Amino acid sequence: MTRDETRAKGARLRVASRTEHLRNTRLDAERSDEPRSIKALLEYATFVQRLVDRVVFVDG
Q: pTM of the prediction?
């Protein structure tokens, strides 16, 4: 495995980890009783999730 392949694999693993964290955050937000701040967090997490999905799709 070349150095670039190793870096790409590491980047994909970091993105997958962050994606899982965002999914968990979104699920926690949906269960919360604090609608305003949680709604903003949920919208942001959804936006970032879509962005990450696009980056992973383009990268491989």
A: 0.43
